Input
Amino acid sequence: MTRVLEILGPRAVVATVLVAATALSLAVLPASTGANAPETPGTLPRQDYNAGAYLFRTFCAACHGERGTGDGPVAALLVAPVPDLTTVAARADGRFSRPDVYAAIDGRRAVPSHGPSGMPIWGDVLRSTEGRDDAIVKQRIEALVLHVESLQRK
Output
């Protein structure tokens, strides 16, 4: 691992691990689960893989932290500070712009903390794992946007 760090640098290693972990987790996810199935006694409730909270834990929490405050375990390894997602509206004069947040997640707007190309652009990651099904990609990004909106400090 030390030799890999010397050759590639820590950002490239972190990015590679994040992409591999994301691809692995998405490879086992169904494209759409619909409503949660009735629970069988003694089993865990079925996970809604399209829920914003689940997607946030899967894709965002490593950098942004579980609560979105920018304190995830990978944040210290990134070149730029990870933004506190609980203050998106506060930084925009109290206005939460769903289209701007959607564009940041999708990758159409450059996000300095995501780096040049070492950090995955989630729209591309989702497109590659969903067989380019844009309707599902859009649904999942919209769920993430709504979740980030729910994290805003009042």
